[in-house]
Amino acid sequence: MPGATPDVDGNDDPADDGVRIDMISGARMEGLTSMEKIRLILDGVREGNIVILEEGLSPDEESKLIEVTMTEISPDDFTGIEIETYPKPESGNQSFLDRLMGRESTQKLTVIGPANRIETLHKDENLISTLVSRK
Amino acid sequence: MGLLTNLRDSISRVTDGLFAADEPKRIGIYGPPNAGKTTLANRIARDWTGDAVGPESHIPHETRRARRKENVEIERNGRKVTIDIVDTPGVTTKVDYKEFLDHDMDKEDAVRRSREATEGVAEAMHWLREDVDGVIYVLDSTTDPFTQVNTMLIGIIESQDLPALILANKTDLSGSDVQQIANAFPQHETIPLSALEGENMDEVYTKIAEYFG
Fold it and tell me: Is the ipTM of this complex over 0.90?
Protein backbone atom coordinates (compact mmCIF):
# COMPACT_ATOMS: atom_id res chain seq x y z
CA MET A 1 0.00 0.00 0.00
CA PRO A 2 1.68 3.27 -1.05
CA GLY A 3 2.44 5.58 1.85
CA ALA A 4 1.62 2.99 4.48
CA THR A 5 3.72 2.96 7.62
CA PRO A 6 5.98 -0.09 7.74
CA ASP A 7 5.06 -2.39 10.62
CA VAL A 8 7.31 -3.80 13.31
CA ASP A 9 9.33 -6.05 11.07
CA GLY A 10 9.84 -3.32 8.49
CA ASN A 11 7.43 -4.98 6.11
CA ASP A 12 4.38 -2.98 5.11
CA ASP A 13 2.15 -6.01 4.61
CA PRO A 14 0.16 -6.43 7.84
CA ALA A 15 -0.71 -10.03 6.90
CA ASP A 16 2.93 -10.96 7.52
CA ASP A 17 2.51 -10.21 11.23
CA GLY A 18 -0.63 -12.14 11.86
CA VAL A 19 -3.42 -14.23 10.51
CA ARG A 20 -6.28 -12.63 8.62
CA ILE A 21 -9.70 -13.99 9.45
CA ASP A 22 -12.68 -13.35 7.16
CA MET A 23 -16.00 -13.96 8.89
CA ILE A 24 -18.67 -14.23 6.23
CA SER A 25 -22.28 -13.83 7.27
CA GLY A 26 -25.11 -16.00 6.06
CA ALA A 27 -26.66 -12.94 4.45
CA ARG A 28 -23.51 -12.34 2.39
CA MET A 29 -23.55 -15.91 1.08
CA GLU A 30 -27.29 -16.08 0.52
CA GLY A 31 -27.42 -14.56 -2.95
CA LEU A 32 -24.39 -16.39 -4.31
CA THR A 33 -24.42 -19.45 -6.54
CA SER A 34 -22.57 -22.57 -5.40
CA MET A 35 -19.56 -21.79 -7.57
CA GLU A 36 -19.47 -18.17 -6.40
CA LYS A 37 -19.39 -19.37 -2.80
CA ILE A 38 -16.62 -21.85 -3.56
CA ARG A 39 -14.62 -19.19 -5.41
CA LEU A 40 -15.04 -16.73 -2.54
CA ILE A 41 -13.77 -19.34 -0.07
CA LEU A 42 -10.87 -20.63 -2.14
CA ASP A 43 -9.67 -17.17 -3.20
CA GLY A 44 -9.46 -16.18 0.47
CA VAL A 45 -7.80 -19.42 1.56
CA ARG A 46 -5.25 -19.31 -1.27
CA GLU A 47 -4.21 -15.87 0.00
CA GLY A 48 -3.50 -17.50 3.35
CA ASN A 49 -6.64 -16.32 5.13
CA ILE A 50 -8.87 -18.20 7.52
CA VAL A 51 -12.47 -18.10 6.31
CA ILE A 52 -15.31 -18.53 8.80
CA LEU A 53 -18.79 -19.08 7.41
CA GLU A 54 -21.67 -18.26 9.68
CA GLU A 55 -23.98 -20.76 8.01
CA GLY A 56 -21.73 -23.21 6.18
CA LEU A 57 -22.30 -24.97 2.90
CA SER A 58 -24.82 -27.55 1.75
CA PRO A 59 -23.56 -31.15 1.35
CA ASP A 60 -23.62 -30.72 -2.42
CA GLU A 61 -21.53 -27.54 -2.14
CA GLU A 62 -19.10 -29.29 0.22
CA SER A 63 -18.70 -32.03 -2.36
CA LYS A 64 -17.96 -29.48 -5.07
CA LEU A 65 -15.59 -27.60 -2.76
CA ILE A 66 -13.52 -30.78 -2.33
CA GLU A 67 -13.57 -31.38 -6.09
CA VAL A 68 -12.50 -27.82 -7.00
CA THR A 69 -9.86 -27.79 -4.25
CA MET A 70 -8.33 -30.94 -5.73
CA THR A 71 -8.06 -29.34 -9.15
CA GLU A 72 -6.19 -26.34 -7.68
CA ILE A 73 -3.58 -28.20 -5.63
CA SER A 74 -0.08 -27.68 -6.99
CA PRO A 75 3.32 -28.70 -5.61
CA ASP A 76 5.12 -26.12 -3.42
CA ASP A 77 2.21 -23.69 -3.83
CA PHE A 78 -1.16 -24.91 -2.58
CA THR A 79 -1.60 -28.20 -0.71
CA GLY A 80 -5.33 -27.97 -0.13
CA ILE A 81 -7.65 -26.91 2.65
CA GLU A 82 -8.45 -27.80 6.22
CA ILE A 83 -12.15 -27.48 6.95
CA GLU A 84 -13.99 -27.94 10.21
CA THR A 85 -17.66 -28.05 11.12
CA TYR A 86 -19.56 -29.71 13.92
CA PRO A 87 -21.06 -33.06 13.02
CA LYS A 88 -24.79 -32.93 12.39
CA PRO A 89 -26.38 -33.29 15.84
CA GLU A 90 -29.06 -35.65 14.70
CA SER A 91 -29.30 -37.03 11.22
CA GLY A 92 -32.65 -37.56 9.66
CA ASN A 93 -34.30 -34.92 11.79
CA GLN A 94 -35.66 -33.24 8.70
CA SER A 95 -38.75 -34.55 7.08
CA PHE A 96 -38.85 -35.74 3.49
CA LEU A 97 -41.18 -32.79 2.83
CA ASP A 98 -38.57 -30.36 4.14
CA ARG A 99 -35.99 -31.72 1.74
CA LEU A 100 -38.50 -31.86 -1.10
CA MET A 101 -39.32 -28.20 -0.52
CA GLY A 102 -35.64 -27.25 -0.45
CA ARG A 103 -35.81 -26.43 3.25
CA GLU A 104 -32.74 -28.43 4.06
CA SER A 105 -30.90 -26.71 6.86
CA THR A 106 -27.19 -26.20 6.28
CA GLN A 107 -26.64 -23.81 9.16
CA LYS A 108 -23.41 -24.84 10.82
CA LEU A 109 -20.45 -22.67 11.67
CA THR A 110 -17.62 -23.65 9.31
CA VAL A 111 -13.93 -22.80 9.50
CA ILE A 112 -11.78 -23.19 6.39
CA GLY A 113 -8.08 -22.45 6.03
CA PRO A 114 -4.97 -23.42 4.09
CA ALA A 115 -3.94 -26.98 4.94
CA ASN A 116 -0.39 -25.90 5.72
CA ARG A 117 -1.48 -23.29 8.29
CA ILE A 118 -4.36 -24.84 10.21
CA GLU A 119 -4.21 -27.96 12.31
CA THR A 120 -7.04 -29.59 14.21
CA LEU A 121 -6.01 -30.40 17.77
CA HIS A 122 -9.26 -31.89 18.97
CA LYS A 123 -12.71 -32.45 17.59
CA ASP A 124 -15.85 -34.00 19.01
CA GLU A 125 -19.58 -33.42 18.81
CA ASN A 126 -19.47 -30.00 20.45
CA LEU A 127 -15.87 -28.78 20.55
CA ILE A 128 -13.37 -28.04 17.79
CA SER A 129 -9.91 -26.94 18.88
CA THR A 130 -7.64 -25.67 16.13
CA LEU A 131 -4.10 -24.36 15.92
CA VAL A 132 -3.53 -21.64 13.34
CA SER A 133 0.07 -20.86 12.44
CA ARG A 134 1.56 -17.85 10.71
CA LYS A 135 3.04 -18.10 7.24
CA MET B 1 -32.66 -26.07 -4.33
CA GLY B 2 -36.25 -25.30 -5.06
CA LEU B 3 -39.36 -27.38 -5.18
CA LEU B 4 -39.26 -28.08 -8.91
CA THR B 5 -35.63 -29.16 -8.92
CA ASN B 6 -36.16 -31.45 -5.95
CA LEU B 7 -39.33 -32.89 -7.45
CA ARG B 8 -37.57 -33.53 -10.76
CA ASP B 9 -34.67 -35.26 -8.99
CA SER B 10 -37.03 -37.39 -6.90
CA ILE B 11 -39.10 -38.44 -9.91
CA SER B 12 -35.93 -39.14 -11.88
CA ARG B 13 -34.61 -41.40 -9.13
CA VAL B 14 -37.89 -43.32 -8.92
CA THR B 15 -38.19 -43.81 -12.69
CA ASP B 16 -34.52 -44.72 -12.99
CA GLY B 17 -35.09 -47.35 -10.31
CA LEU B 18 -38.17 -48.75 -12.06
CA PHE B 19 -36.58 -49.08 -15.46
CA ALA B 20 -33.24 -50.29 -14.18
CA ALA B 21 -34.56 -52.78 -11.65
CA ASP B 22 -32.68 -55.68 -13.25
CA GLU B 23 -29.44 -53.80 -13.83
CA PRO B 24 -26.65 -54.24 -11.32
CA LYS B 25 -26.51 -51.50 -8.70
CA ARG B 26 -23.29 -49.51 -8.67
CA ILE B 27 -21.99 -49.59 -5.13
CA GLY B 28 -19.20 -47.15 -4.35
CA ILE B 29 -16.63 -48.10 -1.74
CA TYR B 30 -15.76 -44.82 -0.06
CA GLY B 31 -13.73 -43.69 2.91
CA PRO B 32 -10.55 -41.86 3.91
CA PRO B 33 -7.14 -42.96 2.57
CA ASN B 34 -5.74 -46.20 4.02
CA ALA B 35 -9.02 -47.42 5.47
CA GLY B 36 -8.74 -50.69 3.52
CA LYS B 37 -11.15 -49.96 0.68
CA THR B 38 -9.19 -51.82 -1.99
CA THR B 39 -8.52 -54.73 0.37
CA LEU B 40 -12.29 -55.00 0.87
CA ALA B 41 -13.04 -54.60 -2.85
CA ASN B 42 -10.51 -57.34 -3.62
CA ARG B 43 -11.94 -59.58 -0.89
CA ILE B 44 -15.48 -59.24 -2.27
CA ALA B 45 -14.36 -59.64 -5.89
CA ARG B 46 -12.18 -62.69 -5.13
CA ASP B 47 -14.89 -64.36 -3.04
CA TRP B 48 -17.53 -64.07 -5.76
CA THR B 49 -15.69 -63.77 -9.09
CA GLY B 50 -12.19 -65.10 -8.44
CA ASP B 51 -10.54 -61.85 -9.69
CA ALA B 52 -9.06 -58.89 -7.84
CA VAL B 53 -9.93 -55.23 -8.40
CA GLY B 54 -6.57 -53.53 -7.88
CA PRO B 55 -3.27 -53.43 -5.99
CA GLU B 56 -3.24 -52.82 -2.21
CA SER B 57 -0.59 -50.83 -0.37
CA HIS B 58 0.14 -49.23 2.98
CA ILE B 59 1.20 -46.05 1.14
CA PRO B 60 -1.68 -43.55 1.07
CA HIS B 61 -3.38 -42.91 -2.28
CA GLU B 62 -2.39 -46.24 -3.84
CA THR B 63 -5.78 -46.13 -5.58
CA ARG B 64 -5.81 -43.02 -7.74
CA ARG B 65 -8.53 -43.95 -10.21
CA ALA B 66 -12.00 -45.29 -9.51
CA ARG B 67 -11.99 -48.95 -10.54
CA ARG B 68 -15.12 -50.88 -11.34
CA LYS B 69 -15.66 -54.62 -11.05
CA GLU B 70 -18.85 -55.44 -12.88
CA ASN B 71 -21.51 -58.06 -12.27
CA VAL B 72 -20.42 -59.33 -8.89
CA GLU B 73 -23.14 -61.84 -8.03
CA ILE B 74 -23.60 -62.39 -4.32
CA GLU B 75 -25.83 -65.21 -3.11
CA ARG B 76 -27.49 -64.81 0.26
CA ASN B 77 -30.31 -66.81 1.80
CA GLY B 78 -31.33 -68.31 -1.53
CA ARG B 79 -31.41 -65.01 -3.40
CA LYS B 80 -28.91 -63.44 -5.76
CA VAL B 81 -27.83 -59.82 -5.67
CA THR B 82 -25.80 -58.46 -8.57
CA ILE B 83 -23.70 -55.35 -7.99
CA ASP B 84 -20.93 -53.43 -9.67
CA ILE B 85 -18.23 -52.61 -7.14
CA VAL B 86 -16.63 -49.20 -7.59
CA ASP B 87 -13.40 -48.94 -5.60
CA THR B 88 -12.69 -45.22 -5.19
CA PRO B 89 -9.59 -43.25 -4.16
CA GLY B 90 -9.50 -42.21 -0.50
CA VAL B 91 -11.15 -38.84 -0.03
CA THR B 92 -9.23 -35.96 1.51
CA THR B 93 -9.19 -32.16 1.37
CA LYS B 94 -5.40 -31.90 1.08
CA VAL B 95 -2.55 -33.65 -0.73
CA ASP B 96 1.09 -32.71 -0.16
CA TYR B 97 3.65 -34.52 -2.29
CA LYS B 98 6.19 -34.20 0.54
CA GLU B 99 4.29 -36.89 2.47
CA PHE B 100 5.23 -39.40 -0.23
CA LEU B 101 8.94 -38.62 0.10
CA ASP B 102 8.86 -40.62 3.36
CA HIS B 103 7.96 -43.71 1.35
CA ASP B 104 11.22 -44.01 -0.62
CA MET B 105 10.05 -41.93 -3.55
CA ASP B 106 12.03 -39.24 -5.33
CA LYS B 107 10.46 -35.83 -5.83
CA GLU B 108 9.37 -36.47 -9.41
CA ASP B 109 7.52 -39.66 -8.46
CA ALA B 110 6.01 -38.00 -5.37
CA VAL B 111 4.73 -35.02 -7.38
CA ARG B 112 3.27 -37.33 -10.02
CA ARG B 113 1.59 -39.46 -7.36
CA SER B 114 0.13 -36.39 -5.65
CA ARG B 115 -1.19 -35.03 -8.96
CA GLU B 116 -2.82 -38.38 -9.75
CA ALA B 117 -4.22 -38.51 -6.21
CA THR B 118 -5.90 -35.10 -6.55
CA GLU B 119 -7.43 -36.14 -9.87
CA GLY B 120 -8.62 -39.35 -8.25
CA VAL B 121 -10.30 -37.59 -5.32
CA ALA B 122 -12.06 -35.19 -7.69
CA GLU B 123 -13.22 -38.18 -9.73
CA ALA B 124 -14.47 -39.95 -6.59
CA MET B 125 -16.54 -36.92 -5.60
CA HIS B 126 -18.04 -36.78 -9.06
CA TRP B 127 -18.97 -40.47 -8.91
CA LEU B 128 -20.63 -39.88 -5.54
CA ARG B 129 -22.82 -37.08 -6.86
CA GLU B 130 -23.71 -38.67 -10.17
CA ASP B 131 -22.97 -42.33 -10.62
CA VAL B 132 -23.45 -44.58 -7.60
CA ASP B 133 -26.63 -46.22 -6.30
CA GLY B 134 -25.34 -47.05 -2.83
CA VAL B 135 -22.26 -46.65 -0.66
CA ILE B 136 -20.11 -48.92 1.47
CA TYR B 137 -18.26 -46.52 3.77
CA VAL B 138 -15.05 -48.08 5.09
CA LEU B 139 -13.33 -46.78 8.21
CA ASP B 140 -10.15 -47.89 9.92
CA SER B 141 -11.40 -48.86 13.38
CA THR B 142 -8.00 -48.11 14.94
CA THR B 143 -8.27 -44.39 14.09
CA ASP B 144 -10.47 -41.53 15.30
CA PRO B 145 -13.65 -41.40 13.19
CA PHE B 146 -14.43 -37.78 14.17
CA THR B 147 -12.73 -36.27 11.14
CA GLN B 148 -14.09 -33.61 8.87
CA VAL B 149 -13.82 -35.79 5.78
CA ASN B 150 -15.98 -38.46 7.44
CA THR B 151 -18.49 -35.88 8.67
CA MET B 152 -18.78 -34.28 5.24
CA LEU B 153 -18.93 -37.50 3.24
CA ILE B 154 -21.58 -39.07 5.45
CA GLY B 155 -23.53 -35.79 5.14
CA ILE B 156 -23.20 -35.85 1.34
CA ILE B 157 -24.30 -39.50 1.19
CA GLU B 158 -27.31 -38.81 3.43
CA SER B 159 -28.30 -35.74 1.43
CA GLN B 160 -28.49 -37.90 -1.70
CA ASP B 161 -30.65 -40.51 0.06
CA LEU B 162 -28.19 -43.23 -0.91
CA PRO B 163 -28.32 -46.46 1.09
CA ALA B 164 -25.11 -46.61 3.12
CA LEU B 165 -23.42 -49.38 5.04
CA ILE B 166 -20.65 -48.39 7.44
CA LEU B 167 -17.88 -50.94 7.91
CA ALA B 168 -15.42 -50.74 10.82
CA ASN B 169 -12.38 -52.36 9.23
CA LYS B 170 -9.10 -53.68 10.66
CA THR B 171 -10.63 -55.45 13.66
CA ASP B 172 -7.61 -57.77 13.56
CA LEU B 173 -5.42 -54.93 14.88
CA SER B 174 -4.93 -54.39 18.61
CA GLY B 175 -6.14 -50.75 18.72
CA SER B 176 -9.45 -51.51 17.03
CA ASP B 177 -12.44 -49.71 18.58
CA VAL B 178 -15.67 -50.50 16.71
CA GLN B 179 -17.84 -48.81 19.32
CA GLN B 180 -16.14 -45.48 18.68
CA ILE B 181 -17.33 -45.62 15.07
CA ALA B 182 -20.83 -46.67 16.10
CA ASN B 183 -20.91 -43.68 18.48
CA ALA B 184 -19.72 -41.28 15.77
CA PHE B 185 -22.45 -42.28 13.32
CA PRO B 186 -25.35 -43.52 15.45
CA GLN B 187 -27.82 -43.01 12.62
CA HIS B 188 -26.19 -45.87 10.69
CA GLU B 189 -25.57 -49.52 11.38
CA THR B 190 -21.87 -50.29 11.88
CA ILE B 191 -20.54 -53.71 10.88
CA PRO B 192 -17.11 -54.80 12.17
CA LEU B 193 -14.76 -56.73 9.89
CA SER B 194 -11.21 -57.45 8.91
CA ALA B 195 -11.09 -57.34 5.13
CA LEU B 196 -7.47 -58.48 5.25
CA GLU B 197 -8.18 -61.60 7.33
CA GLY B 198 -11.69 -62.17 5.98
CA GLU B 199 -13.25 -61.96 9.45
CA ASN B 200 -17.01 -61.42 9.66
CA MET B 201 -17.43 -61.35 5.87
CA ASP B 202 -20.59 -63.50 6.17
CA GLU B 203 -22.35 -60.68 8.00
CA VAL B 204 -20.97 -58.13 5.51
CA TYR B 205 -22.45 -60.10 2.57
CA THR B 206 -25.77 -60.49 4.35
CA LYS B 207 -25.90 -56.74 4.90
CA ILE B 208 -24.87 -55.99 1.29
CA ALA B 209 -27.76 -58.15 0.10
CA GLU B 210 -30.12 -56.47 2.57
CA TYR B 211 -29.07 -52.89 1.76
CA PHE B 212 -28.45 -53.09 -1.96
CA GLY B 213 -30.52 -56.04 -3.15
Answer: no
